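Inverse folding, one chain.
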């Protein structure tokens, strides 16, 4: 009588190790380093823990999973000779792509051709070398291949640096500045980089499609407690798991440590703990009050981290009409009366700005207060409103109204939904009123989309095709048609109101609309 034993596959141990490493997500590099060290020579358990900076229990767990693939001797632990090829193929680090001189030259070109800093948005340009140092630091500390990186604001083009350095990285940029989004889109398309851009003003919320979707969040926010607190809260909303990390650039002057204390308190209040602070990683063309440098804060969310900040104060910046110390003030009775003369109605108060949800029709003409609009609010509010008639009070120098060309460009985007009238220097020399009146008819596919700007683009466009097509399209056929028309399939998961302006305009005037 013979006894048969089931053979244990030679790959069982290495697959167990790979599975354990995958569970660490972007934090897996120290675990891979354990095996990289053991592939070269024997190491004691104490050495593996110290060099890799991994908890002892984790190192012991990895050695246990590897089983007979790891040999133990007087000098310590090492990978068995027979197992080396398999671990090199499936566990150890990939070889580095080489030098970074060419990447830095590309970044210098990206920065020099990019938009000028906007003082009202606290833009201070980081050097191209800074963007590359950030990307290199991320690559050396995290598993970036196929990682999901969110950048909350990216005037410094760190997204492009990261994807140039690690082509497998998937980066998403959220920014309020339409110029930055258009510039990043252009550079990413030219160089085949996996960067996707989304428009948002974080004070009014994070686009829903970005919630709980990212391994790493990077930001260089306004250096006020309010600004850092807001960007930190939105980072929490975007994080996918407890292994996600916030990388935040921040600096303060040694002459005002109280400000640094307030900012750090904001991060602690949100439930972050500082894993490390990398000193002087960031250098700027400006920011002389803080020595033209800032540190990188590596923040880990704790179990007590707050998941939502809701709607935030508009005053988060250090300069301009949205500065912490600045305010537009309440509208005077004279101002309200003047607006009423323009709109032909009685205006008792101004409504606050915000477009996270659709703004429904009302009996009276709603007038929204956009006096602090940095530029993009007017279009977003036109998308959000679904009223017969609506009005907006803006600064008389608002970029969408200061010339016939600017007015035509705004009308070109929104014309299938609203007819616009621009009342400059009304009701006084410093303000203007923009009145939008519905066109009545839905305006074809473009109008259908514009009236449903908070719907997911894939679903709304599909329904629009079915409603306006002469052929009897099924949902599947319409969905396939939409997927073939859109330039970037990642846009299908967004709401129309979250599209950068240049892609929004292109979509509304594309062949299938």
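Residues assigned per position:
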């Amino acid at each position: 009588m013979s006894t048969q034993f089931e053979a244990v596959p030679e790959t069982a141990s290495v697959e167990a190790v790979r599975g354990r490493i995958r569970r660490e997500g972007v934090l897996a590099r120290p675990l891979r380093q354990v095996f990289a060290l053991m592939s070269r020579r024997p190491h004691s358990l104490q050495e593996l823990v110290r060099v890799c900076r991994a908890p002892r229990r984790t190192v012991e767990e990895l050695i246990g999973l590897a089983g007979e693939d790891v040999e133990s001797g007087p000098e310590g632990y090492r990978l068995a000779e027979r197992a080396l090829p398999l671990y090199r193929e499936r566990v150890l680090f990939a070889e580095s792509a080489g030098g970074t001189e060419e990447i830095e030259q590309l970044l210098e070109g990206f920065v020099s051709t990019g938009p000028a800093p906007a003082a009202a948005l606290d833009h201070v340009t980081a050097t191209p070398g800074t963007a590359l140092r950030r990307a290199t630091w991320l690559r050396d500390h995290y598993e970036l291949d196929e990682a999901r990186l969110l950048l909350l604001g990216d005037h410094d083009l760190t997204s492009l640096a990261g994807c140039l350095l690690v082509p497998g990285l998937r980066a998403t940029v959220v920014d309020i500045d339409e110029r930055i989004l258009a510039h990043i889109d252009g550079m990413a398309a030219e160089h085949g980089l996996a960067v996707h851009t989304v428009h948002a003003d974080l004070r009014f919320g994070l686009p829903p499609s970005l919630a709980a979707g990212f391994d790493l969040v990077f930001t260089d926010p306004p250096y006020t407690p309010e600004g850092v607190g807001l960007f930190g809260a939105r980072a929490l909303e975007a994080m996918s798991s407890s292994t996600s990390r916030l990388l935040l650039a921040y600096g303060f002057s040694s002459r005002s440590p109280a400000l640094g204390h307030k900012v750090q308190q904001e991060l602690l209040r949100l439930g972050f703990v500082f894993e490390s602070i990398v000193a002087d990683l960031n250098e700027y063309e400006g920011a002389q009050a803080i020595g033209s440098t800032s540190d990188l804060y590596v923040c880990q969310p704790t179990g007590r981290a707050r998941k939502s900040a809701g709607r935030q104060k508009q005053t988060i910046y250090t300069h301009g009409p949205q500065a912490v110390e600045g305010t537009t003030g309440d509208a005077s009775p004279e101002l309200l009366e003047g607006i009423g003369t323009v709109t032909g109605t009685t205006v008792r108060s101004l409504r606050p700005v915000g477009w996270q949800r659709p703004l429904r029709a009302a009996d009276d003409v709603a007038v929204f207060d956009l006096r602090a609009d940095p530029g993009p609010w007017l279009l977003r509010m036109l998308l959000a409103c679904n009223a017969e008639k609506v009005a907006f009070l803006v600064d008389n120098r608002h970029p969408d109204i200061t010339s016939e060309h600017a007015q035509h460009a705004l009308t070109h985007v929104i014309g299938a939904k609203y007819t616009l009238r621009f009342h400059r220097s009304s009701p006084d020399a410093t303000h203007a009123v923009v009145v939008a009146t519905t066109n009545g008819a839905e305006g074809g596919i473009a109008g259908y989309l514009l009236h449903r700007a908070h719907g997911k683009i894939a679903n709304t466009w599909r329904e629009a095709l079915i409603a306006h097509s002469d052929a009897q399209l099924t949902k599947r056929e319409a969905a396939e048609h939409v997927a073939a028309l859109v330039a970037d399939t990642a846009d299908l998961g967004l709401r129309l109101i979250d599209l950068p302006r240049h892609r929004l305009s292109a979509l509304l005037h594309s062949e299938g609309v």
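Residues 444-508 form one domain. The chain has four domains: 12-90, 101-301, 333-438, 444-508.
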